[in-house]
Write a structure and sequence with these properties.
Layout lengths: L1 H9 L3 H27 L13 H24 L3 H31 L11 H30 L11 H27 L1
């Protein structure tokens, strides 16, 4: 009986397994994009650039959001719903501000004359838009998941303290945070 229980405990929850598969796919996609960037940058006409400072601010905020989601998860597991909701809401807010700052960073590129799309654009800037833009889409997906889980915490139904959905969302959120850190460092090291 004990051996059967420990074998069941070792199984990965199907939702966690699916999330890890999705993360593996995203890792391959971003590895491919950054590899293509490295290969393409040796072509003539490739312009070097420095990321506008607003990207540093957004990086700090998304790193803080990793801390807030972790506090929210621990609070949920301890059944401290008020603290859980507060830190979950902070994570949501930081995610929205992150995306806003990223978009402002793209506008800053344009203000500096670094056209990202269309006639007269440079592939270097287009790559930044593609890579960071795809990351924004993944963060947006995380925000939607955060919002759904957050709204469920206000449900009047009998409370189920199954932490699995919160753990999955927190893991995904940590992943998009680490992914942005990789992208940010990648662009800084190459320029």
């Amino acid at each position: 009986m004990i051996q059967m229980m420990s074998a069941q405990e070792k199984k990965v929850h199907p939702y966690k397994f699916n999330m890890w598969l999705a993360i593996a796919g995203m890792i391959m996609m971003f590895a491919g994009l950054t590899s293509a960037y490295i290969v393409k940058r040796s072509q003539p006409g490739w312009e070097s650039f420095t990321l506008p400072g607003i990207f540093s601010v957004s990086t700090g905020l998304i790193l803080i959001s990793s801390l807030t989601i972790q506090v929210a998860l621990k609070s949920f597991k301890a059944h401290h719903m008020g603290k859980y909701r507060l830190f979950f809401a902070l994570t949501l807010l930081l995610g929205v501000v992150f995306i806003t700052l990223q978009i402002m960073g793209f506008y800053r590129f344009n203000e500096l004359g670094m056209k990202m799309t269309g006639i007269g654009s440079n592939p270097a800037y287009s790559f930044v838009l593609a890579i960071a833009g795809l990351h924004i889409l993944h963060v947006t997906g995380g925000i939607v998941a955060l919002l759904v889980i957050f709204l469920k915490s206000f449900s009047r139904k009998k409370r189920n303290y199954d932490s699995m959905p919160v753990e999955i969302v927190a893991t995904y959120w940590h992943f998009v945070d680490i992914l942005w850190l990789y992208i940010f460092v990648f662009f800084h090291l190459l320029h």
